[in-house]
Specification:
heterodimer, A: 277 residues, alpha+beta, Immunoglobulin-like, 5-stranded mixed beta sheet, 4 helices, elongated, B: 585 residues, mainly alpha, Cytochrome C Oxidase, Chain A, two-stranded antiparallel ribbon, 60% helix, globular
Chain lengths: 277, 585
């Protein structure tokens, strides 16, 4: 029988491992509870719902995390070989049943609870009277198009796209509906107003992401995807690309400005229409 | 139960260097070949990752082998792509399954070799060719691809026009992967046939070690999933080279150049195909590690596995449900939000068998008599890491939370802890456990323990902080943090991660040294240094060419008969005849 006794039930190893797991658990919980690195505050009611569901999930996973890690640490220390006999048991059907049922209820319950926020984001469209903003991703910047006073977007044709001559989205000069379209590299929206985004791309998949809106949506070639939000807190918010789109994916950044209705109207009237640029 | 003439019918040991070590038909040699392929690949993958970490923190550092002396953004993305591809395919899909599975499975079921030894040899060499093709992407003029290991079109489908590395580099990547698929399909066939057909007398399914169960379920996943990836690769290759439009819609303009030669395709089709493969793939990566963990925890607690039947059921449930959850990678993709709801519920459900396994691992060591061998330390570490990595999945499984967390470092933290660490710990545990059997010598336990501590502390220091980067909204695959303002306060976290990575990767060289040193100079190992119960411990270390020297044992009991009340020894080997039980060994 070949067994090196130095690794038998070593109290040093058992104690160190248990203590490390304990410290790791405490540090992790501390960082989460103190929110040392955290989301920025949400600026929509919807964002508030997301944050509540996150909190619910954090509590449940946190309890399981602490229980499992501490259970492991305790077992490591308590059952190190000190010359005792191991207790022979092959299982416990009752315990199996109970913890399986508890897990199903907790996990599936948590999942069902969170579906309401998802439904609000995706199962229902924008509220009537929403302001539409067409969001176009391209390697490597964002373009935002507003339909202007006529409320209609002008036709765009891919073959007319020419960033170098001031037509980055390819507006057709022959379409009268496009004459009042405004194209901007940054997005302005009025606060407390339903905004409908029409998210699209010219070349590869990008992803429109604003942390404070708790909103992210891939811009997929060949698709126009609708999202909606209602921002209540004025401010400047960064837009980052969140789907690998090539060389300069990390610089594909713009800004969302949430402003008062009056400021928004002024900004719109200050913009040159796209075809004039 | 029928016993067949086991193995490929070779009755004489092979002669000649080529037959013995290069084109060997012996599952043991092939297992070691896979192991060394994975070893080479993991150090390559780590080298790529340390360059990534250095670049994120010191973007202007002078780096050898780069054209300009520094890593450019496209080179960073090539590192990201190749790191992921090499680690997932050439390490996590080879070592646990093709490496240890090949070596140990036939012995553990009492077979003299795999069912199809020639196919086995072809599987390895096909894998080798796929690795060469994959690595060759580094050496083409425009470099390796930049589309990530996930290679989403249209970035990956339209050629050089979408970016550097998207020419020949991406094509080689696709071909390399397609070849790998073929190799994996061949391997899976072998594993399933062997396990079902070549078990020794008395080795019923209910007496199979959990390692064998895990290799069997993994092989079934591989058989069903790799065909889909192969199809996807062929379609992508056709889009890139033959003018087809499976993944490319019409009306695209790339940098002012209209793309007129494609229309009608959908990028989402690639995602469905890739992730229908990709999700089972990650279970292929972890299931063998779970089998090893169960096996090692039981052996070194001197206790049976707690709830053997539930463990088997959980392996099968994870395998089955693994095919039902692929959409959780696509919540934000533009896929139907109603199917997102369905995928979310399935994903929360797959957490249940994983939780059952965790409870049962704790139940296995509870009340035990724990020996802290290095193998056991890695198995215990596996449990801790699986808990941590698995729980972050509960956040990502909910599409409402995924709206924020998708494509952030929170995801990077999740999959690294589960795959890049827990699965690796499964490989380490397997190495320390079976090295004596494979090489006839013990690995050095002191070096092993130092390596374990540095690695266990190190990986938590690397990957826990990534959760916090994700909570702050840090997107993935960013070549640096200067382009976006909200990333500036996170620089100190990146610095901490990079330092931790440098220390942890350095510690892996201690493992490498231990491995090669012990092969030559390790303490000689007997038949059963661990007083373990399964069939591999009933034969010499290393085993003869046909495993059982012509005397295939019969099996009389389950695989985990430890500390059975009334027995003289605290373990009863599976092959010991009932009369011999109770007598001194």
């Amino acid at each position: 029988m070949q067994r090196d006794n130095s690794e038998a039930g070593s109290t040093t190893i058992a104690f160190s491992l248990a203590v490390f797991i304990l410290i790791f658990t405490i540090v992790t919980v501390y960082i989460f509870v103190r929110k040392i690195w955290w989301f920025p505050p949400a600026i929509t009611a919807f964002g508030g719902q997301i944050d509540e569901q996150f909190h619910r999930t954090l509590v449940i996973t946190g309890v399981v995390f602490v229980a499992a890690q501490l259970g492991l640490a305790w077992a490591i220390f308590r059952f190190r070989d000190r010359g005792q006999k191991a207790v022979f048991f092959e299982g416990n059907s009752t315990m199996e049943f109970v913890w399986t049922l508890a897990t199903i209820v907790m996990f599936v319950g948590l999942g069902l609870y969170g579906e309401h926020a998802w439904a609000e984001a995706h199962f229902q469209g924008a509220a009537p009277g929403a302001l539409q903003v067409e969001v176009t991703g391209q390697q490597f910047q964002w373009q935002f198009r507003y339909a202007g006073p006529d409320g209609k977007y002008g036709q765009i044709k891919p073959e007319l796209i020419s960033a170098s001559t001031g037509n980055p989205v390819g507006l057709d000069p022959k379409d009268p509906a496009g004459k009042d379209d405004v194209v901007s590299p940054v997005m302005y929206v009025p606060a407390n107003r339903e905004i409908e985004l029409l998210i699209r791309t010219q070349d590869v998949t990008h992803s429109f992401y604003v942390r404070e809106l708790r909103l992210k949506q891939d811009a997929v070639p060949g698709m126009i995807i609708h999202m909606h939000f209602n921002a209540t807190v004025p401010g400047e918010y960064e837009i980052a690309c969140a789907e690998l789109c090539g060389l300069s994916h990390y610089t594909m950044r713009s800004f969302l400005y949430v402003v008062s209705q009056a400021e928004f109207d002024k900004w719109m009237s200050d913009q040159e229409t796209a075809l004039q640029q | 139960m029928v016993t067949h003439d086991s193995g490929g019918g070779h009755h004489h040991p092979p002669s000649g260097f080529i037959r013995k070590y290069i084109f060997s038909l012996d599952h043991k040699v092939i297992g070691i070949q896979y192991f060394f392929l994975a070893l080479f690949s993991v150090f390559t993958g780590m080298a790529l990752s340390i360059l990534m970490r250095i670049h994120l923190v010191w973007p202007h550092a002078k780096v050898p082998f780069t054209a300009s002396g520094q890593i450019t953004p496209d080179q960073y993305l090539a590192l990201v792509t190749m790191h992921g591809s090499i680690m997932v395919f050439m390490v996590l899909t080879t070592a646990p399954q093709s490496g240890f599975g090949n070596y140990i499975l036939p012995i553990q079921i009492g077979a003299e070799d795999m069912a199809f030894p020639v196919l086995n040899m072809l599987s390895f060499w096909t894998t080798f060719v796929s690795l060469v093709v994959l690595l060759s992407a580094f050496f083409v003029p425009e470099g390796a691809p930049i589309s990530g290991w996930t290679a989403y079109p249209t970035l990956s489908a339209m050629g050089q026009i979408t970016g550097p590395g998207e020419g020949a580099g991406q094509t080689l990547w696709v071909i390399g992967l397609a070849i790998f698929c073929v190799a994996s399909l061949l391997g899976a066939l072998n594993f399933i046939t062997t396990t079902l057909d070549l078990r020794a007398r008395g080795m019923t399914l209910g007496r199979l070690p959990l390692t064998v169960w895990s290799w069997l379920v993994t092989a079934i996943l591989g058989l069903l999933a790799f065909g889909v990836l192969l199809a996807a690769c062929i379609l992508l290759l056709l889009d890139r080279t033959a003018g087809t439009s499976f993944f490319i819609p019409g009306g695209l303009v790339v940098t002012d150049t209209p793309i007129i030669s494609h229309k009608g395709g959908s990028p989402l089709l690639w995602q469905h195909l890739f992730w229908f493969f990709g999700h089972p793939e990650v279970y292929i990566a972890i299931l063998p590690g779970m089998g090893v963990a169960s096996h090692v925890l039981s052996t070194f607690s001197r206790k049976p596995v707690f709830g053997y039947r539930a463990m088997v059921g959980a392996l099968c449930a994870i395998g089955f449900l693994g095919f039902c959850v692929w959409g959780h990678h696509m919540f934000i993709s533009g896929m139907s939000p109603y199917s997102a709801f369905a995928f979310s519920l399935m994903t929360m459900t797959i957490g249940v068998p994983s939780a059952i396994k965790t409870f049962n691992w704790l139940g296995t060591i509870w009340g035990g008599k724990i020996h802290f061998t290095t193998a056991m330390l890695f198995a215990l570490g596996f449990v801790s890491l699986f808990v941590t990595g698995g729980l972050s999945g509960l956040f990502l499984a909910q599409p409402s939370l995924d709206l924020y967390l998708h494509d952030t470092y929170f995801v990077v933290a999740h999959f690294h802890l589960i795959m890049g660490v827990a699965a690796i710990f499964g490989i380490f545990a397997a190495t320390f456990f079976w090295f004596p059997k494979m090489f006839g010598r013990m690995l050095n336990e002191t070096m092993g323990k130092i390596h374990f501590w540095l690695t266990f502390v190190g990986v938590y220091c690397i990957f826990m902080p990534m959760h916090f980067l994700g909570l702050a909204g840090h997107p993935r695959r960013y070549a640096d943090t200067t382009g976006v303002n909200f990333l500036a306060p996170l620089h100190s976290v990146h610095y901490f991660i990079t330092i931790a990575a440098m220390i942890t990767i350095t510690a892996q060289f201690l493992f490498l040294f231990n491995l090669f040193y012990s092969m030559k100079f390790g303490k000689k190992a007997g038949e059963n240094p661990w007083n373990a119960t399964t069939l591999e411990w009933s034969i010499p270390s290393p085993p003869p060419f046909d495993n059982f020297a012509g005397h295939v044992p019969s099996v009389y009991r389950g695989a985990y008969e430890f500390s059975v009340p009334g027995a003289t020894e605290d373990y009863i080997p599976q092959h010991l005849t009932p009369e011999k039980v109770g007598k001194a060994h």
